[in-house]
Every structure is written in C-alpha cells, then in structure tokens.
Design goal:
The protein has 477 residues and is an alpha/beta fold. The protein is built from 13 helices and 16 strands. It folds into 2 domains: 287 residues, Zn peptidases (Aminopeptidase); 159 residues, Glucose Oxidase, domain 1 (3-Layer(bba) Sandwich), CATH 3.50.30. The strands form 2 sheets. Strands 1-10-12-11-13-16-14-15 form an 8-stranded mixed sheet, with helices on both faces. An 8-stranded mixed sheet has the order 3-2-9-5-6-7-8-4. The longest helix has 21 residues. The protein is elongated, with a radius of gyration of 24 Å.
Length: 477
C-alpha cells in the first residue's frame, strides 16, 4: 500500500471511530456494516434474478407483455422474501415499433442498378412514413447552428444530424456528459427539424464503440409534429456525410411505428418495515422497463435486481432497520417517467418522511462508492459508511448540488437527498439502448459489488441518528 492510500485508510478509520458514538445509530457499527458488505459480496442472488428477468422475459418496453410479466416476476420474488409488496397503478405510453428500412437509392457516382442499405432503428415516439415509405434527399448537418443557418433547405428533406459521441470524454469519467451532448440532437434536434418541415429526421447513434449498432431512445416528438425519426449506425452516418459531399443524396425510408392508447401498468414497491422510525423511508431502486431491441440487462435490469438484493441481503442476515427500507422497481423511465411522477404525486404529503433515495441506473461497471446530493455539512456523518466500504475499494463519496438521476428527480426537487452508485461507465454507452444489451454483458463479480455498496448504504441511511438534511434548492434558471 502506498503512502497516500495508507493515509486515506487511517483517516477514514479514525473518522469512523471518532464519529461512531455521535453519527451512527445502533446497528451502524463496523461489525454490522461489514457483515452486510461481505454477505452481498458472497451472493449471486441478484445475478440469478438478472437471468430470470432478461432470459425468461426479454425486452420490457412500457405497455408491452414483457413489462407486465416483469411486474409479476419482481413482485413474486419480493413476496417470497417476506417483504410487504404494493403494486402502484401507473398509466404508461404504449408505442410499438414496426418496419424500419432505409436505402440510399441515388448519389453522385452511383453505379447503375446499385443501392446501399442503411442500418437504423426508429426512435421512441417516432411518427410513421406512408406504408410504402417516402423518398427524399438527405440534408446532412453537424450541429443546431447549421440547422438554423440552412432552414430554407429543410422542408421536404430527410435531415441527418451526424454528430459523433465523444468517447474520449467517456474514457475520462464524463460518459454522462458525453451522452447528454448527443441526446440534444435526438430530442431538440428532432423537434426543431419537425417544426421546420422536414420529411423525416435521422440522428447518428448516441453511443460509443462503432459496431454498426443503432442506439434507440426517446425522440422528443409530440403529437402535431410527429415525423418519422430514427437513429442510424455511426458507420452509416459517416457514409452519408461522405456521399453528400460528392453531390445530392437520396434515400428511401420506411418506418411504421404505432402509438396506441396508454396502457395500465405498475410500480412494484416492496417494504422492509423499520422499527422505531418505521414512518421514515429510505428508497432503493432501479427502473423495470427497457427498450425493445434487447433484454435491457444493463439498462436497467441490473439496477432493479441490485435494489431487490438489498432486501434479500438484510433478510438473510435477519437485520431489521430503524427506518423502512423501500425497494421500488420504477415503470416507464425510458419514455416518460410516468412511474416516478405517479409516486411523487401519491406521496406529496409524505415527502418529508423520505430521508433519502437511491437509484442504480448507469450500468453494471465497477462501482467505487456513491454520488450524492446531500448537503455539504452532512458529509462528515458518512465516515462510518466509507470506512466499511474501504476494504472493497468503494469508499468514494462524490457530492453535487443536484444529482438529477431519472426517476429520483421529482423526489430530489422536493428536497429528498439522492444517491447513485459511482460507476465506471466508460464502456456503458457501447451497448446502451441497442440489441446488444444482454445478460452476457454483465459480470457477476461486478454485480455483487453493486449490491454490497447499495445494501451497506441503504442500511447506514436507515439507521443514522443525525438527520442528513434536505437537498439544496435547484438554482434559478
């Protein structure tokens, strides 16, 4: 161990010892925390549940039979643990993918009789082309300023935003920021193009490794301006950019998705009741729905099963927390967050009793601790937790004013401090929202680490003596 690591270890241990009497409630001693950590690290219960969800059910897009089956499966697994299970009704969007083909049928220098296939997939909420498809010239753009500068050319064209995902940012710990930059075109870009009269809009897939995989996701399109919209594989976006530089480029596009009536679904809620502070709640969660191209192993079956395994770990140890630990499998994070909205609305009068909330929704990469939006002054109260997670190399506690994690955003705006595992997500967007987000991408040893960090953190929060305060108000816009 080098000197800097030794100093960190000694300082964390010293803080933990000094703070035990004042900051840790009964049950938050190092022995109890260590047992929770080690029990989770020795168990493959979550990995087995991951196989059940992905291999037996498959994709789980809101409104689908797969989503309904997942509700039943998770609820039954939690009942078998002895948790108190509630199914909270939620009305969710029901968008169904149809045919999706694209062909480059004319371009400068094209040999007679030849055409080229483009690999793409419809974006969630996309409108449909006529059944026979549409044929139009492709207008290649590289940012929103260029869209505005060339507005006169947009009407009747298929607009392509060829904007590369910044993998270098992802490699240096900023994968979320890189994703946010790309999603700008999948959301705002599609809406602006629709308003300007585009016949359809394509976006270069928002993701890392270029394996000619299209990455789906929500389009941001609304009724009244819902044009065909799709994500194209990075290689095909680059091809179209090169061909457009030679001269006019024409595509034939067929997309036939349907928007059906909202469907009935549920959040799955499972409580491990507390002892003397049972009316206070610590949420631990992941989202149950996935996109429809694959089985959503990383997004977000790993989050759901790791949250489920928090309760399994504590039940196995026969540990009962002071506060209620509530597992929530959220429905409809991917294309609406209706589940999270329904929960906040139903619990508006009880939000002050929500002490903290955890969501795991950034894949199954190695976890190094937690990100959080607790007040700055409360950081000192977490020395005991960090000391317990130090032996597994997960003592990081990274604070920010607003965490902004999908399903927790409403609770966070209402003042509930949020937590999310601090994960190496440098390769997460290689398979995110693609047909390759499957069970085999998840390493069991990394999933065990997720459970260990989440279970230890949830227990610590549920047993603290000091209130950790509320999330600071969001800055004015």
């Amino acid at each position: 161990m080098n000197r800097s690591c030794r100093r960190l270890s000694l300082s964390l241990i010293a803080l933990a010892v000094a703070g035990t009497a004042s900051a840790a409630a009964p049950g938050n001693d190092g022995v109890a925390l260590g047992k929770i950590r080690d029990s989770a690290l020795a168990s493959d219960w979550a990995y087995e549940r991951l196989a059940d969800m992905t291999d037996l059910i498959g994709p789980r897009l809101s409104g689908s039979a797969g989503a309904s089956a997942a509700v039943v499966q998770v609820a039954e697994a939690m009942r078998q643990l002895g948790a108190r299970v509630t199914l909270q009704p939620v009305k969710v969007p029901h968008w169904v993918r149809g045919l999706e083909t694209a062909t480059l049928v004319d371009y400068a220098g094209r040999p007679a009789g030849l055409s080229q296939k483009v690999v793409l997939t419809a974006l969630g909420g996309s409108g449909a082309t006529p059944a026979a498809g549409l044929r139009a010239q492709v207008l290649v753009l590289h940012d929103l300023d260029e869209l505005k500068a060339r507005v006169a050319e947009v009407k009747g064209r298929i607009v392509l935003f060829d904007v590369a995902f910044d993998q270098r940012m992802a490699d240096h710990g900023m994968a979320g920021q890189a994703y946010g930059q790309g999603v700008l075109y999948r959301g705002m870009g599609t809406r602006l193009a629709a308003q300007m009269g585009a016949a359809a809009v394509l976006v270069r897939s928002v993701g890392g490794a270029d394996f000619r995989l299209p990455h789906t996701g929500s389009s941001g399109l609304q009724d009244g301006a819902r044009i065909p919209a799709a994500a194209v594989a990075a290689e095909d976006a680059m091809l179209m950019t090169r061909l457009a530089a030679r001269g006019p480029l024409t595509m034939e596009l067929v997309l036939t998705p349907q928007i059906l009536a909202d469907a009935d679904s549920f959040n799955v809620i499972a409580d491990l009741p507390g002892l003397d502070k049972a009316d206070e709640v610590v949420v631990v969660s992941g989202h149950l729905d996935s996109w429809d191209l694959a089985t959503g192993a990383n997004d977000d079956a790993t989050g759901v099963v790791s949250a489920m395994a928090v309760l399994e770990t504590l039940k196995k140890l026969d540990y009962q927390p002071r506060r209620t630990i509530r597992m929530i499998a959220w429905m409809n994070e991917e294309n609406g967050t209706r589940g999270a909205q329904a929960y906040v609305e139903a619990n508006r009068a009880l939000v002050a009793k929500h002490v903290a909330a955890i969501e795991n929704d950034e894949g199954s990469g190695r976890v190094f601790g937690m990100r959080t939006s607790i007040p700055v002054a409360s950081m000192v109260h977490f020395a005991g937790l960090r000391a317990a997670l130090l032996p597994m190399g997960a003592a990081g506690l990274q604070r920010t004013d607003v965490l902004g994690t999908g399903d927790l955003s409403g609770l966070e705006r209402a003042g509930v401090p949020s937590f999310s595992p601090l994960i190496d997500d440098s390769t997460y967007f290689n398979y995110h929202h693609t047909a390759a987000d499957t069970f085999d991408k998840v390493k069991p040893e990394e999933l065990r680490r997720h459970v260990a960090v989440m279970a230890t953190t949830a227990w610590y929060l549920a047993n603290m003596n000091e209130p950790i305060g509320r999330t600071p108000p969001a800055p004015a816009r």
